[in-house]
C-alpha cells in the first residue's frame, strides 16, 4: 500500500504547515491549531459540525484536491465525545433533549460527513477500538488497496475538557487532531510505502526488544528508525511523536504523517504506538 | 474462496441462546414488551429487553465482581462464548471483530448521574473497544482484535470485515458480531428524533409509528477452507456476498429512492454471482420508521421488480438492536435456512399505500437456500450480506 498524499491538523501544525521544532512549548496544549475552515466548509454547514468533524472533513477535502478516492475509512477512539457529553448532560438535566447532539454523537459522524461533503457513495467504514483505531482503519485500507481501490483513510479525535476532568485525566498531556492519507496500490508518484500493519505484544519499556524479536521471527529487515508514541495516558514512551501532537487515541495517524516527512532521511521507520499495558500498534513505513 | 460459517451465538429479547432463539422465533411470541426498564427511565416503554439482569449475567458467566462490567460487555461475553464453543486452541491465525455503538454508555450514564461510585473510572468501559478486549482475553484471541462503529450497520460491517480478512489471507478464522445494550442515551436519542414508537413497532405497515429499541448480542464464527481442515468443523452456512455503500445524502435519513441501498444490494448480488431470482428470503432492515421502510421498499422494488422474494423484518420480534442488528439478523437468517421456514412479519396488517408491498404473512415452509440481509444506518451507511446454505 502506497501513500500518495497526506494532510494533518494537530497542536503542532495547522493544515498545510510543517511540524515545528519546539516540542517543549507544545506540552499542555489541548487544542489543535485549527485552520481557516472557510476554504473547505461553508459557514452554514460548519456551525452544525463538531470540532472532530470540521478537522476530518477539512483534511479530507484538502486531500480531495490531490487525488480522488473510491472509499472512506476513519479510525476514532472516542468518536464525537463532545456531543456525546452534551447529550448526556441534556439527559441528566432532564431538559428538552436536542436530537442534534444525539445525531452528531454517533462514532461514524466524521466518515458520514466526509461522504456527504465529497459526494462519495463508495465503501464507508469507521473503526473505534481505543488506541488501535487508526491501525485498524489502515489495515482495512490495505485490504481495499489489494482489491484495487483508492482509499481516503485517517484518524481523528476531538478533546473534551468535561470528559477529561470527569475521568481525572486533566493533568495528562491530552490533545486532539486529524491526519488523513490518500492511499492505493499504485507505486508511481507515492511519497511512502506502508509495508506492515500489526501489533506488538510487550510491556512498557520492552518495545525495542519486542520489535527486534518480531522482525527476526517474521524474517524481515529491522526498521532503521523507531518512532515511538502513546495513544493513552500512562508511562511515558520517552521523546516520541506523542510529545509533539499530544496524547489521543488515534494519534498513530499523526505518527504516520510525521513518518511521511521523515522517510527521506531513513530507509524504513517503525511507528510504535503504546495503546495499553501489554500491546503496541506497529506500522512499518518504507521509501516508495 | 468460500467463507464458511461454523457456529453462532445469540442473546436477545427473543431468546437466551441459539437453540432457544430457534424455538421462540416461530412461537408467535415477540420479545418486545412494555416495561419500566430502569436504565431507560421511560414509562410504558416498548423495548426488546434481554430477560436477565446484569447480576444474573455475571453470575452465569462466572465473572469476578471486583471488576466493573458494562451490560454490553456482559452480553458480548455470553453470545461470544456460545459461538466460540466449537473452537479449540488450534494453531491458526485468529481474529475477533466486534461492533458496538453504545459501548459502556450504561456505566458512563450511571457515573454521570452519580448512581455509581466515582472510585470506578468509566473510561475503561466507555470506549467501544472494552467489550472486544474483554471477550478476546476471555477466549484467548490475539492475532487481530478490533471494533467497528458505524451505527445500525455496525455488526454487518464486522461480519464483512472478517470475511474480507479471510479472503485476503490475513486470518484463518474469525469471530465476528455486534452487541448493544439498552441505554438512556439511545432511547432518549431516538425519542428526540421523534421516531420511537409508543406502541409495538410495525415494519412496512402503512400505519407504522417508528421503532422500538432492543438489546442483545450475536456472533458468527467464520472459517477458511484451511481452517476447516484443522478444526474439523461442519459448516452451518456460508457468507457468499457483501457490499458497503454510502448515501452521501443526510446524517440520519436515507434518500427517498433508496439509491445507495439499491447499489449495495446489487453489488452484493454481483459479488455472490447471483441473480435476483436466486434470493429466497430477504431479512429486511425494516426499522418501522417512515423513512427507512419507504426508502428500503423502493430499493427492493428497483432491484427485484416483479421477482421480489418473500421479505420481513425481525425487528418486530427483537426490537432494533442497533450495532447488534446485523449479526442478530444473520443468526436469524441461518435459522430460517436450517428450519426451511419463512419468518412472519409480526404486527403487520396494512400494506404501505406508496408501494403496496406485502411482507411474509404466514410462517410457511419454504426451500430457503439463500438469504439477503440488509443493514442500513446513520451516516448514510448501507451494508448488505448474502448467506447461503
Helix content of chain A: 25-40%
Termini of chain B, distance in Å?
Answer: 15 Å
Q: Kindly state the mean pLDDT of chain B as a whole number?
A: 93
How many helical elements of chain A?
10
The overall average pLDDT of chain A, rounded, is: 94
CATH architecture descriptor text of the largest domain in chain B: 3-Layer(aba) Sandwich
Strand content of chain A: 15-25%
Spatial ordering of strands, largest sheet of chain B: 5-4-6-7-1-8-12-11-9-10
Euclidean distance between termini CA atoms of chain A: 10 Å
The CATH architecture name of the largest domain in chain A reads: 3-Layer(aba) Sandwich
SSE series of chain A: EHHEHHHEHEHEEHEHHEE
Task: Write down the CATH topology of the largest domain in chain B.
Answer: Peroxisomal Thiolase, Chain A, domain 1
Tally of structural domains of chain B: 2
Determine and state the CATH class of the largest domain in chain A: Alpha Beta
Largest sheet of chain A: 9 strands, mixed
Cα-based radius of gyration of chain A, to the nearest Å:
18 Å
Strand-pairing-aware structural class of chain A: alpha/beta
CATH class of the largest domain in chain B: Alpha Beta
Tell me the overall shape of chain A.
Answer: globular
Helix proportion of chain B = 25-40%
Compact description:
With 288 residues, chain A is an alpha/beta fold. Chain A is built from 10 helices and 9 strands.
List the helices and strands and how they pair.
The complex is a heterodimer of chains A (288) and B (389).
Chain A lengths: L1 E8 L33 H4 L4 H14 L6 E5 L5 H12 L6 H7 L3 H10 L5 E4 L5 H14 L4 E7 L3 H6 L10 E8 L7 E10 L5 H12 L6 E6 L10 H5 L6 H11 L5 E9 L2 E8 L2
Parallel strand pairs in A: 2-3, 2-4, 7-8
Antiparallel strand pairs in A: 1-5, 1-6, 4-5, 6-9, 8-9
Chain B lengths: L2 E10 L5 H8 L6 E4 L9 E4 L5 H8 L9 H14 L9 E6 L5 H8 L10 H4 L2 H11 L4 E5 L5 H14 L5 E8 L3 H9 L23 E8 L1 H7 L5 E10 L12 H13 L9 E3 L6 H15 L6 E2 L2 H4 L6 H15 L30 E8 L3 E8 L1
Parallel strand pairs in B: 4-5, 4-6, 9-10, 9-11
Antiparallel strand pairs in B: 1-7, 1-8, 2-3, 6-7, 8-12, 11-12
Helix pairs in contact in B: 1-13, 2-3, 3-6, 7-13, 10-11
Amino acid at each position: 500500500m502506497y501513500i500518495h498524499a497526506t494532510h494533518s491538523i494537530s497542536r503542532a501544525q495547522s493544515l498545510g504547515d510543517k511540524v515545528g521544532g519546539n516540542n517543549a512549548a507544545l506540552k499542555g496544549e489541548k487544542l489543535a491549531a485549527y485552520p481557516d475552515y472557510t476554504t473547505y466548509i461553508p459557514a452554514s454547514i460548519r456551525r452544525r459540525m463538531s470540532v472532530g468533524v470540521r478537522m476530518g472533513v477539512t483534511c479530507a477535502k484538502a486531500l480531495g484536491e490531490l487525488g480522488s478516492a473510491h472509499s472512506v475509512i476513519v479510525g476514532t477512539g472516542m468518536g464525537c465525545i463532545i456531543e456525546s457529553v452534551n447529550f448526556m448532560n441534556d439527559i441528566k438535566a432532564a431538559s428538552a433533549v436536542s436530537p442534534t447532539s444525539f445525531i452528531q454523537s454517533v462514532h461514524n459522524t466524521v466518515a458520514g460527513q466526509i461522504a456527504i461533503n465529497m459526494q462519495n457513495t463508495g465503501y464507508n467504514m469507521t473503526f473505534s477500538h481505543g488506541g488501535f483505531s487508526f491501525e485498524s482503519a489502515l489495515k482495512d485500507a490495505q485490504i481495499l488497496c489489494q482489491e484495487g481501490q483508492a482509499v481516503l483513510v485517517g484518524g481523528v479525535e476531538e478533546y473534551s475538557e468535561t470528559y477529561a476532568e470527569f475521568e481525572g485525566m486533566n493533568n495528562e498531556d491530552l490533545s486532539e487532531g486529524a491526519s488523513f492519507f490518500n492511499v492505493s496500490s499504485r507505486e508511481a508518484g507515492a511519497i511512502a510505502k506502508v509495508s506492515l500493519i500489526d501489533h506488538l505484544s510487550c510491556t512498557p519499556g520492552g518495545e525495542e526488544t519486542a520489535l527486534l524479536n518480531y522482525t527476526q521471527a517474521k524474517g524481515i529487515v529491522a526498521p532503521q528508525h523507531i518512532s515511538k508514541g502513546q495513544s493513552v495516558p500512562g508511562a511515558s514512551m520517552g521523546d516520541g511523536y506523542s510529545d509533539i501532537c499530544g496524547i489521543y487515541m488515534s494519534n498513530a495517524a499523526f505518527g504516520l504523517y510525521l513518518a511521511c516527512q521523515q522517510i527521506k532521511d531513513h530507509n524504513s521507520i517503525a511507528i510504535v504506538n503504546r495503546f495499553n499495558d501489554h500491546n503496541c500498534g506497529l506500522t512499518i513505513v518504507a521509501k516508495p | 474462496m468460500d467463507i464458511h460459517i461454523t457456529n453462532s451465538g445469540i442473546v436477545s429479547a427473543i431468546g437466551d441462546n441459539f437453540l432457544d432463539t430457534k424455538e421462540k422465533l416461530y412461537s408467535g411470541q415477540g420479545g418486545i414488551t412494555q416495561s419500566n426498564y430502569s436504565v431507560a427511565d421511560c414509562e410504558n416503554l416498548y423495548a426488546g429487553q434481554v430477560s436477565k439482569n446484569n447480576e444474573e449475567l455475571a453470575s452465569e458467566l462466572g465473572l469476578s465482581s471486583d471488576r466493573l462490567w458494562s451490560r454490553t460487555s456482559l452480553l458480548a461475553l455470553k453470545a461470544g462464548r456460545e459461538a466460540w464453543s466449537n473452537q479449540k486452541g488450534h494453531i491458526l491465525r485468529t481474529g475477533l471483530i466486534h461492533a458496538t455503538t453504545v459501548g459502556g454508555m450504561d456505566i458512563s450514564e450511571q457515573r454521570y448521574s452519580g448512581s455509581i461510585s466515582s472510585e470506578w473510572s468509566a473510561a475503561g468501559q466507555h470506549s467501544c473497544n472494552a467489550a472486544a478486549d474483554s471477550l478476546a482475553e476471555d477466549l484467548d484471541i490475539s492475532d487481530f482484535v478490533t471494533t467497528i462503529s458505524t451505527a445500525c450497520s455496525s455488526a454487518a460491517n464486522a461480519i464483512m470485515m472478517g470475511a474480507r480478512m479471510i479472503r485476503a489471507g490475513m486470518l484463518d478464522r474469525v469471530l465476528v458480531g455486534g452487541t448493544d445494550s439498552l441505554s438512556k442515551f439511545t432511547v432518549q436519542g431516538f425519542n428526540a428524533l421523534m421516531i420511537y414508537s409508543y406502541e409495538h413497532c410495525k415494519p412496512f405497515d402503512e400505519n407504522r409509528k417508528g421503532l422500538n429499541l432492543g438489546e442483545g448480542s450475536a456472533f458468527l464464527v467464520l472459517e477458511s477452507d484451511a481452517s476447516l481442515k484443522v478444526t474439523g468443523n461442519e459448516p452451518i452456512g456460508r457468507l457468499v456476498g457483501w457490499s458497503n455503500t454510502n448515501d452521501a445524502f443526510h446524517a440520519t435519513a436515507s434518500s427517498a429512492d433508496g439509491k445507495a441501498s439499491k447499489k449495495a444490494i446489487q453489488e452484493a448480488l454481483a459479488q455472490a454471482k447471483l441473480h435476483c431470482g436466486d434470493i429466497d428470503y430477504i431479512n429486511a432492515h425494516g426499522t418501522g420508521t417512515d423513512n427507512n421502510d419507504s426508502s428500503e421498499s423502493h430499493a427492493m422494488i428497483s432491484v427485484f421488480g416483479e421477482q421480489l422474494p418473500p421479505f420481513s423484518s425481525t425487528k418486530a420480534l427483537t426490537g432494533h438492536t442497533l450495532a447488534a442488528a446485523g449479526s442478530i439478523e444473520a443468526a436469524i437468517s441461518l435459522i430460517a435456512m436450517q428450519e426451511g421456514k419463512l419468518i412472519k412479519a409480526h404486527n403487520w396488517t396494512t400494506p404501505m399505500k406508496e408501494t403496496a408491498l406485502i411482507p411474509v404473512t404466514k410462517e410457511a415452509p419454504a426451500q430457503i437456500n439463500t438469504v439477503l440481509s440488509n443493514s442500513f444506518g446513520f451516516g448514510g451507511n448501507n451494508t448488505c450480506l448474502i448467506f447461503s446454505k
